[in-house]
Amino acid sequence: MENKSCFHCGDVCGNHPILFQEKSFCCNGCKTVFEIFSENDLTCYYDLQNSPGAIPKEIEGKYDFLSQENIIEKLTEFRSDNIEIATLYIPHIHCSSCIWILENLKKLNPNITDSQVNFGKKTVRVTYNSETTDLKSIVQLLSSIGYEPYISLDDFESGKKHINRTLIYKLGVAGFAFGNIMFLSFPEYFEINEFWLEKYKHFFRWLMFALSVPVVFYSAQDYFISAYKGLKAKLLNIDVPIALGVSVLFIRSTIEIALDIGSGFFDSLAGLVFFLLVGKFFQQKTYNFLSFERDYKSYFPIAITKIERDGTENAIQVYDIKKGDRLLIRNEELIPVDGILINGRAKIDYSFVTGESQSVTKVSGDKLFAGGKQTAGVIELEALKSVEQSYLTQLWSNDVFNKNKEDGFTNITNAISKHFTIAILSIAIIATSYWLFTDASKAMNVFTAVLIIACPCAIALSAPFTFGNLLRLFGKLKFYIKNASVIEQLAQINTVIFDKTGTITSNERSNALYDGEQLSASESLVLKNSLRGSNHPLSRTLYNILEEHNIVTLDEFEEHIGKGIEAKHDQINLRIGSASFVGQPEQSSALNTTVHITSNEKYKGKFTFYNSYRKGVSKLFNQLKQHFDLVILSGDNEGERENLKKLLPSKTKLIFNQKPEDKLEFIKYHQSEGAKVLMVGDGLNDAGALAQSDVGIAISENVNVFSPACDAILDATKFQDLYPFIKASRSAITIIKWSFLLSFIYNVIGLYFAVTGQLAPVVAAILMPLSSISIVVFTTICTNLLGRKLK
Amino acid sequence: MSVIYIVLTVSVIVGMAFFIVFLLAVKSGQYDDSYTPSVRMLFEDELVTEPSKESIQTKSD
Q1: What is the pLDDT of residues A366-383, one digit of tens each?
Q2: Which CATH code is given to the segment(s) A64-158?
Q3: What is the pTM of this model?
Q4: Which domain holds residue B56?
Q5: N- to C-terminal Cα separation, chain B
Q6: If one looks up domain A511-610 in CATH, what number appears?
Q7: CA distance A529 to A549
Q8: How many CB pairs under 8 A join A and B?
Q9: Which residues, numbered 79 to 98 in chain A, qualify as contacts with chain B under a Cβ-Cβ cut-off of 8 Å?
Q10: Which residues of A587-676 form beta strands (DSSP E)?
Q11: Do B32 and A41 touch (CB under 8 A)?
Q12: What is the ipTM of this complex?
């Protein structure tokens, strides 16, 4: 039996692929998308990349809220009488085919005039004629071809995002001035007392002065501001000597050209600022398509269906939900507020909240918490609270979410700059006093020269380039870090805390044990065949575990959504599903998910599913135990304690039944004892702990979709490589220390010229770029070597 | 030799012109997405053949 992969999405087709135009598809959805594309001459989609598509999801009624005027207003970035522009975030964008098909949307809907993809951000910007079509039909079109946009409460608030491009402008100004000043100062480097040069040099010099004014007052302004703030807080950060150097360079050069003493150091000044900004630019580059600041708003829907008293259904904004409102939650929709179930059978998946994928069954009258996802049919509930006051969202009112982790953390550059600044100032003062006694005319010259040459450009560049490059290398290995300071904090960790469910266990359950009366051969045949027809995750898992059987056609097959399956073949009538479905009393003591089976109304037994741990958990813990304190902090019951004890090194602390706030407090307590905590978690229930810890890493099965606010996102497949990543961060600190040493050597050479009073502009102009470039080269080579070791 | 004033003025003006073009390019969002255009560029060939196919279709209609 060969398993073909789907022509559209690449999934395994199973035993019954759908054949269409000699191509096999895994489901009707994929086939439909293919049909849409082939009808519209868009099959080129499949030439660019093999099986690039996604299975389109059922979206009946899901986007009704998009026809509401005030919601369209918030989601569109431009609106006029007949033209609207909206930018939609589409997580599925992943290859060149995606770009191609999305930019050819106008062939599928002629009312779309333009669509432009931003691959990095995974967004598509659609311009369309709002008289003939609307946002809702665009979203439905996108969903029908497998590119369902992700619209959340977050979009509602941010609305029109403003892109900050000031750094590029500053860099442009500095670069422009740097290049031109270099040309203008070139003739004077060689000090040829040539007639024409002598005649025009004043003109040249004032031109350089004019060019350097915007560099000092615009491009370098951040350094002055930061230095001022640092001094105000009694901190000698790295920007203090930089601001000092820049101002001394500018003032001395201006005086020199005004009094016709020399040509000044405008070239070094512009070069210095330019290199510093390049470093900043390099460090600023982050992952556009990932968001590290997510709170519940990114998970919540923007609107929900409200049932009015007269029975009519209306889409209302989530923020407008009031206590007592009746809400309709469709299959696959998220519950936005705490409420009481009124109607329907609820099967709630709380995986966003707890990381636990097993769904919970609720009956009418039960309380439902916000953040759960309904997975079986339509339900009605009555709101008990508004969105902000719900159990889950209240967690975000904790102070920890308003705190910036970088505050109160002295980074390695600032730590060294304190000593550096003091040393430079002492050298400057000693050298000046020496010259005051020997040759007073040179004293001022020496003082400024020391401050100029010691301007810590190379030191300021070491960390940005090392961390920036490492960030990029980690990203290639699917470990996405928010910013450079996270790498530094990661290097100082001494305690590692793991969440259990979803973090060290994988979301798929692949272990199930049978308990009960042995099934006869024909019964297991029917069981296997009836599971084949079901798409429920538990059925799929069970199907894969059971041994192979022949394929038979069932006489009867019915799937009761959220309950179980009923199947009939020959004389065997099987019921497979929840305890209540097969007529068994619900066992409240059971800690694990179970699937029960009856044959011809006789109870046979049950399959119990166990968490399966991620590959390499044991190995990772054994690597970590030599260097760190290890803790498992789980929100679950103690059902897995014995299993974990066997799996993990004995010194690992196991703590169960932790509420989100407990996790946060636990970490806070250990931090007050001096621990540097790395928290590894996944669900929203870890959000508080991730924010409180020194470094919070979210494990994610799909980095594009869900992860709580954190400092770094680690792809679940790379979980076992956590230790090498921490080790690499530590090596990065070593690299930076070595590059500090290198820049000190340059400083000593420069200081020799400065202290002896012979610093010519040409020496500064050579030394400054040379030191900066060699630091960049050194750190880049070292981090690349480090990256090679990681692979 | 006072031509040097003219020459320098011209060169600075040319420099400024390019600088202004750069600022306009940044402002128009050209540097916001540095990846997609590199892929989009390769689609040009297919886009050219596409309209001709469509016109054939409309004729047959």
Answers
A1: 888 777 778 777 888 888
A2: 3.30.70.100
A3: 0.74
A4: 3-60
A5: 75
A6: 3.40.1110.10
A7: 8
A8: 61
A9: 96
A10: 594-599, 602-610, 629-633, 653-655
A11: no
A12: 0.74
